[in-house]
Amino acid sequence: MKVFQPVRLAGLDLQSRIVMAPMTRYQAGEDCAPTAAGAAYYARRAEEGVGLIISEGTLINDSGKVGGPGEVPVFFGEKPLQGWKAVVDAIHAKKGAFFPQLWHCGRFAAKPVGPMACPVPGYQGLPSGSPNTNVVALSPDQIEALVAEYVKAAVAAKEMGCDGVEIHGAHGYLLCSFLCPDTNKRTDEYGGTQQNRMRFPLQVVRAIRAAVGPHFPISFRFSQWRLDDFSAKKFKTSEELATFLRALQENGATIVHASTYEIMTPAFPEEDPTRTLAEWCKLLSGGGLVVIGVGKITIGASFMDSLFQGSYTTVSSPAPAFQLIEDDKFDLLAVGRALIACPSWISTLKTKGLETIPPFHKSMLEKWPNL
Questions:
Q1: What is the distance between the alpha carbons of residues 316 and 319, in angstroms, rounded to a whole number?
Q2: Whether 173 is catalytic
Q3: Gyration radius of the chain's alpha carbons
Q4: Residue 311 binned pLDDT confidence (cut-offs 50, 70, 90)
């Protein structure tokens, strides 16, 4: 089966087409540095055959921090970067590739910022956890300073031996909030038209590409939905999505990570009743971008139910998603919660069958599981 076979994409030699999706774990140690247990957690998934590990979101500066039950790791400062170097080495020892995901929480940060002033959003009707009540609009000078923070983190990643980086531009966080017409109603060069709304995210991509050179892979993760609105749709048509994908390519991205909470959901059903968002990305980029698809590959419960309501998930068949890979509809398949519940997800599916995959429960997030 193609999904489990080695492949070379975007200059990366991967042991399979399975990607470990980025998942916030709130398990960072002193100085918000990765711990030895965290390195073992990631390396275990590489040892079990995952081709590319994308880290949980790592913060590019102090202002981007999010509230939560524990510490989120950062990608700046001596001790955290030493910790990430240990993660990189542990994953490479198990033949895996590694990207840190570069993150600023924007409107959801403890010090919330965004395209415009507004009340701090909640998580789909749940409280935000921020001690502040209002989002502060970023000035152009502040935007330029944040671009430099992204670049600094990306350069550090390259220097320590990471195989690439992923820019978090999804789920309503900072870069996503600029892309979305519902959350960006600025009247300057960073708002209004689609070209203006793309400006800040594209500046980040372009500046990172200039700093890391032509061959270092850059992934950009985007979503239609936001944490405060699962029905949001920043790209209303495939034409709007095509404009964005062309701009990503032109500014130096090599991979696009299309985040959906259900991978098989049609992205523009009025245009095509079955084509998924990842498929649209592959089609519209003309093969110029490596495409990662993600969303409940073997998870039966919704994101909100499994993480916030405490439901156990059911285990569903990955066969429809696997078939899209077989048919070259997109390139890589990211798996999230299922890899927390079952580190040996690949070998278990191959040798024991779907019925032996354990269900996910949010209690598994309380500590590093199954090391």
A1: 9
A2: yes
A3: 19
A4: low
